[in-house]
Design a protein that fits this description.
Layout: E1 2-7, H1 18-26, E2 30-33, E3 60-66, H2 69-72, H3 75-79, E4 83-87, H4 98-113, H5 119-131, H6 143-146, H7 150-165, E5 178-184, H8 192-205, E6 211-215, H9 227-239
Parallel strand pairs: 1-2, 1-3, 3-4, 4-5, 5-6
Length: 242
């Protein structure tokens, strides 16, 4: 059985995976999208479907996570992943040193804005930075446009605290996993130091060196229509006939 569990990042929702789900489903993959429930969609924590234990080596369990997404999945999900695709992601989000201190201050300001008069402005500013150099209109509609729920605001705060506190690789990432890192060259959200540290940490942790794609002219939201096809082909190439 070939399965994908996908997880969106901070302030997003599972709707963003709709084109990926359609494409992968047509290719015979079982797809599940995690959902944090920031808006009015119900939160959903995915788990792997049972596989044929007579052929365990033929099972493919793929995690695809954008930005904070891999850190929002359970350890049980990550522990069983055979492949992991990290899209504009990171291990430690806040770098050490002066750059990190300035970023931490900005993140605390974002947290303070949640639930206040500046909430909409803060979220739109974040999304604009995530989309650039593309325009904000290129992003799929999400919780900011549709409205946050009170429970969603609590999760948004908690997940921002989690982002600020990240110190390393997502907990549970197997050393045996095949990993693809897709980096946005024009990322205005993830600091270059955080991207470099992620690759270094993965190289130390994994049995196989991670594959690294850096996409030029692309921002944090990775608004590249054919990226999902490239990822699917990478998985097929690395998975043989599984």
């Amino acid at each position: 059985m070939r399965q994908v569990i996908a997880m969106h990042g901070w302030s997003g929702d599972s709707v963003a995976w709709a084109p990926w789900e359609r494409h992968f489903s047509r290719q015979g993959w079982l797809w599940q999208s995690g959902e944090r429930g920031y808006g009015h969609r119900s939160a959903y924590e995915p788990s792997w479907a049972e596989t044929n234990m007579a052929q365990p080596k033929r099972a493919r369990r793929v995690v695809i996570g954008h930005s904070l997404g891999p850190h929002l999945l359970s350890t049980a999900v990550l522990n069983q992943a055979t492949d992991v695709v990290l899209l504009a992601s990171f291990g430690r989000f806040v770098p050490t040193g002066p750059e990190g201190r300035a970023l931490r201050t900005g993140l605390k300001g974002m947290r303070k804005a949640i639930g206040g008069d500046g909430e909409s402005t803060m979220l739109r500013t974040f999304l604009r930075r995530a989309a650039q150099p593309a325009g904000l209109e290129g992003l799929p509609p999400g919780p900011e446009q549709q409205g946050l729920s009170e429970r969603g605001r609590e999760r948004l705060r908690a997940d921002l605290d989690r982002l600020i506190g990240t110190e390393g690789l997502p907990v549970g990432l197997p050393q045996t996993a095949r990993v693809l890192v897709v980096e946005a060259a024009e990322d205005a959200i993830v600091a270059p130091a955080a991207s470099r540290e992620l690759l270094q940490a993965l190289t130390r942790h994994l049995e196989q060196k991670p594959e690294h794609w850096q996409l030029s002219g692309v921002g944090h939201a990775l608004l590249v229509p054919d990226l999902l096809i490239g990822v699917q082909k990478w998985l097929d190439h690395n998975g043989g006939d599984c």
